[in-house]
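Worked example 2:
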Amino acid sequence: MSKYVGQRVKRTEDPRLIKGLAHYVDDIGLPNTLDVAFVRSLYAHARIKSVDATEALKAPGVVAVYTGKDVSSKVGPVPCAAALPDLKVPDYRVLATDKALFVGHPIAAIVATDKYAARDAVDLVNVDYEELPAVVDVEQAAQGGNVIHESFGDNIAYKLTSGEGDIEAALKSADRIISQKAGSLFSRRRRADDLVIDADTTSAAHATRSNDRHSRKQTARDHA
């Protein structure tokens, strides 16, 4: 352990990054690869009245356009990793169907022959929004506020009480009581450089992390 503690440790990934020899997701070019760009919500909370992709489908290089309604019956809801008593889990889809729940919420996916064609076509998709009051304060949202998921009736995902023994009796017998309020905007944080899969199901699949710090390759055969 003394070999590392307090010592300068040379990073193994530096030479290829400094020399420009590192490989990133954009550097991997499999045959017939398509690119995707997303139409994202301009509003923090809005009802999606309609999505018109007619002009986007006519754009050069565009192969397909998918909306939430196109994929909702083919792709299931995004699973929730938490398991808590009485947790309210919304039916959250990969593309918004009826409502946009935050600024940047993906509404439609543009698939094209390259990333530039896909991005240009994003501007050709016409989304008709009905802007709704947004929730910008956590405490106000918990006390009532504007309900985001109407099926639940409120904005409280779950209530969790911790403690042992007779808490009320302990408070009454205490010489001094100190109250403190604590909060967190995020229940979980994740690294931004998640694993990206660039796959050709008829031949091989290559996997690499986007920042190449922990890059690796793997090959998968399609036996179907």
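The first strand starts at residue 35 and ends at 40. The radius of gyration is 24 Å.
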